[in-house]
């Protein structure tokens, strides 16, 4: 099974908690930076530390002075977790050190356990007032599609690798499910507050926790979020609850309702091919193999990649062109696939249900001619007008191999890719 990049979802939750096991993977999400998420938190009454976002070392120094604190937390703003492990978060108490550290981050690529070797570009850093931490908690939300509910997740193990907590100590992950007809109920926030040990001080902490959960629920529903995490949610030594970090994913399918949020997209943090595919209505995710895949339907695409792997090959991508694809989409899909220099062959797997296979075959022929494709292509067509589609491919005079079955297609493209790789060397 192939999992999409972990910055889109905390997959360990899916694997180690019943609620998350039933959640559906969704690659159509727009990620926000921490500073953007915290602004949404402020707008919905969720307490966060005082901070400034900057783009130059000089701005960093000005921001630190404006905060008026003797120490500052400096955080690289990238779409990836594990920033502290990658050297992207530091507590500093010297203006000169702060300026030098900001200068070293800005314009660099931060490598974390979630980015891969190439890292993510750092265009902004967040200068934040530090907090006297008494306890660190975890609080998150996502959509459980199997139950048709928004689920709140909480844990006393905040500040830690929450995926590891879910894996090794799943009993530490607490959940409540919110019915959409009634919304978040006070008893649900009280349940989590008591479980987290926030029943002290005459209930003031539990009340503050309820206000945070209520604000998060409004934010989640108002902005059509798909994932929200605060790790850590801290209880300060002064008895205040603060969101020290903020992670938000927004459902791309709902962005037409939120013109203000579309301006927050940072394409520098996205895979160039994935962003280009999204512009053409294609679902594309880069992988590490050498066999490009073009399939109509997410489930069929996953099955195609699984079979390539089973037969000894390595998929280079997930690419779903959709059920009602067109010749133009097919051509763009080819262009995106071959823009990856690792690709040594392409497997096209089309089931003609909504779309006719002969029209897809025409699109494939046009695309191969248009992009002057120099690598092997194996096509498997099944469904409406499949025989006519295969005939068109056979009569095209192009180096396109029509397969009789998916298994046949997988075997053929693996052999062809190996031969192409050998010739290239």
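-> sequence recovered:
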């Amino acid at each position: 099974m192939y999992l999409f990049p972990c910055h889109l979802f905390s997959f360990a939750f899916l694997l180690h908690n019943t609620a998350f096991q039933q959640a559906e993977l969704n690659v159509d999400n727009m990620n926000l930076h921490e500073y953007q998420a915290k602004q949404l938190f402020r707008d919905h009454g969720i307490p966060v530390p005082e901070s400034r976002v900057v783009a130059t070392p000089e701005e960093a120094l000005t921001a630190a002075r404006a905060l008026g604190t003797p120490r500052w937390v400096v955080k690289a703003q990238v779409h990836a977790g594990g920033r502290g492990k990658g050297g992207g978060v530091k507590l500093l108490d010297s203006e000169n050190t702060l300026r030098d550290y900001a200068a070293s981050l800005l314009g660099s690529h931060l490598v974390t356990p979630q980015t891969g070797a190439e890292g993510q570009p750092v265009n902004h850093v967040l200068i934040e007032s530090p907090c006297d931490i008494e306890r660190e908690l975890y609080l998150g939300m996502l959509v459980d599609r199997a139950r048709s509910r928004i689920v709140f997740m909480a844990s006393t193990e905040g500040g830690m690798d929450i995926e590891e907590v879910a894996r090794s100590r799943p009993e530490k992950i607490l959940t409540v499910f919110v019915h959409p007809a009634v919304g978040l109920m006070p008893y649900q926030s009280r349940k989590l507050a008591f479980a987290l040990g926030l029943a002290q001080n005459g209930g003031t902490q539990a009340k503050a926790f309820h206000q945070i959960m209520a604000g998060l629920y409004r934010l989640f529903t108002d902005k059509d979020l798909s994932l929200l995490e605060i790790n850590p949610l801290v209880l300060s030594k002064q008895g205040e609850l603060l969101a020290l970090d903020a992670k938000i994913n927004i459902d791309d399918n709902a962005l037409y309702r939120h013109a203000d949020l579309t301006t927050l997209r940072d394409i520098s943090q996205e895979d160039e091919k994935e962003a280009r595919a999204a512009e053409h209505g294609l679902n594309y995710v880069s992988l590490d193999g050498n066999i490009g895949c073009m399939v109509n339907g997410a489930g069929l695409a996953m099955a195609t990649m699984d079979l390539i792997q089973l037969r000894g090959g390595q998929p280079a991508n997930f690419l779903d062109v959709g059920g009602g694809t067109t010749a133009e989409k097919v051509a763009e899909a080819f262009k995106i696939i071959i823009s990856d220099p690792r690709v040594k062959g392409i497997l096209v797997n089309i089931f003609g249900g909504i779309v006719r296979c002969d029209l897809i075959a025409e699109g494939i022929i046009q695309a191969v001619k248009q992009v002057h494709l120099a690598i092997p292509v194996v096509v498997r067509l099944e469904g409406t007008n499949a025989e006519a589609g295969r005939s068109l491919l056979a009569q095209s005079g192009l180096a396109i191999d029509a397969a009789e079955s998916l298994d046949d297609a997988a075997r053929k493209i693996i052999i062809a890719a190996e031969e192409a790789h050998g010739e290239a060397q």
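The chain is about 35% helix and 25% strand.
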